[in-house]
TrEMBL record:
Residues 146-336 form the RNA polymerase III Rpc82 C -terminal domain. Keywords: DNA-directed RNA polymerase, Nucleus, Transcription. This is DNA-directed RNA polymerase III subunit RPC3. Its main location: nucleus. Residues 7-65 form the RNA polymerase III subunit RPC82-related helix-turn-helix domain. DNA-dependent RNA polymerase catalyzes the transcription of DNA into RNA using the four ribonucleoside triphosphates as substrates. Specific core component of RNA polymerase III which synthesizes small RNAs, such as 5S rRNA and tRNAs. GO terms for cellular component: RNA polymerase III complex. Belongs to the eukaryotic RPC3/POLR3C RNA polymerase subunit family. GO terms for molecular function: single-stranded DNA binding. Component of the RNA polymerase III (Pol III) complex consisting of 17 subunits. The lineage of its organism: Eukaryota, Metazoa, Chordata, Craniata, Vertebrata. GO terms for biological process: DNA-templated transcription.
Amino acid sequence: MTQAEIKLCSLLLQEHFGEIVEKIGTYLIRTGTQPLRMIVNDTGLSLDQVKKALCVLIQHNLVTYQLQKRGFVEYEAQCKRVLRILRYPRYIYTAKTLYNDTGELIVEELLLNGKMTMSAVVRKVADRLTETMEDGKTMDYADVSSTFVRLADTHFVQRCPLVPEAAETPEVPPPPAPTLVISEKDMYAVPKLNLIGKGKRRRSCDEDENHEHKAKKHKKDREDAEPPPDDGIYWQVNIDRFHQHFRDQGIVSAVANRMDQTSSEIVRTMLRMSEVTTSSSAPYTQPLSSNEIFRSLPAGYNIVKQVLDQYLTLLADDPLEFVGKSGDSGGGMYTVSILSGFGSRCARIFRLLLRKKHLEQKQVEDFAMIPAKEAKDMLYKMLSENFVSLQEIPKTPDHAPSRTFYLYTVNILSSARMLLHRCYKSVANLIERRQYETKENKRLLEKSQRVEAILASMQATGAEDVQLQEIEEMITAPERQQLENLKRNVNKIDASENQVDETIFVLESFIESTLKKP
């Protein structure tokens, strides 16, 4: 665990959960697995604060616990999972792209709350969607449930492990910590719920006062009623499935850039056919026959079977091996390879070394067609930054420079790790910059929020335009310009965070796939 990763985890925890949770999370990341007593002693927080912070971290899968043989429980932070908080906006946007606003809000609610029952998610999302609709229109629970089922069917959400049912025996005391289990066949099984109802709008202050006694009565009735049919069945976002989707999109884009749109559509179809049957960590998709691929091509995509076979042959023969042939039955069996290779002047030299493996400086100059002085400067610069390495091969035992070959080479795995480390540092710097911008303009932001609240209240009571204009003029023209600049800067920082995270995802995927290669 590098210092850059620890710092970024600390910033993410503080930004999303506050100082106490950040202190506990960062302590566990730095020290590793620890029992409750040590966490309380070393952090200086009260036992109650530590317990509540651990509950929050466990709820969001950021900390795991394990019962030791000696009978006490130890807690361990999941640093990689904490870093995934950075990717939350991308998960939410992907859900919106695939499943519209309803899918977006379902994934957002699960990420915000860590774990929720399906019935709770459906009600909350229906209420939020109803708030955005025109007066008189509401969102039906059944429509939200349908989208939730689609997300489960495509494995974007999954059930959380449960405490296994066991016969109650008073002689045997319960363990200090439960062991949670779930079978693979139940992981995406949606309970049959008959959720009838529509989303509700939030009442205004006057309506709340008029209906206060009704709300209390309704709350009491709800407490007395039976628990929902899915009580105890919790759901969470399947982050690995989103990563699989990002990876598939990257493969499709790479095929389109290297070959053409038709080739990329064929690969997209193969990935879509095997998205649920192939593990996110598998090196290849499940084998698919040419006949199956042809039947599954998008409607209206007019290519004949013979042309499809020619495209599959071209893809299988390509040096990058996006597609591999694994058999001849069914017109030919094909798989998509997940472990595909990663391919200014410095970039030209770097690509050249990747292809040629080892080159002398003179060979680099000749192959890259770069003047000797420039090539020398670039090689030394990349050498000092650890992008390339220098290997000495002596002709004689005395290692005399005049009788030694000096070969430049690239350790791609080492370079990827170094770039990943720099990306973590970049994101941490961006977060700190956003916090600084917000802190510097705190007074103006608070004033703007007060004015917006007053305007919203006056609009709800039917105030005249003149009155509203007077309130708006409480913020002067220079202050409005300052707010616009702040908004623009924060938007740029947010966009930069997302762009850096896309690079982080590519580098992490490459490192993981390289380490899995035999």
